[in-house]
Amino acid sequence: MRGGGASPGAAFAMSRVRERRELQRTTQKNDWDFNNRDFLSRFMQIEAQDKDIPPEAVSVWASSNITAGSDTTGIFLRTFFYQLLTHPPTLQKLRSELEGAAAAGKLDPIASWKQARELPYLDACVKEAGRIHPPFGLPYERVVPPEGATISNRRIPGGTIVGMSAWVVHRDRDLYGEDCDEWNPGRWLCEGEKRRKMESALLTVGLRISTQSHPWLFKLLLAIDVQVARMAYCCIPCSSEPAIDHA
Question: Is the pTM of this model over 0.90?
Answer without folding.
Answer: no
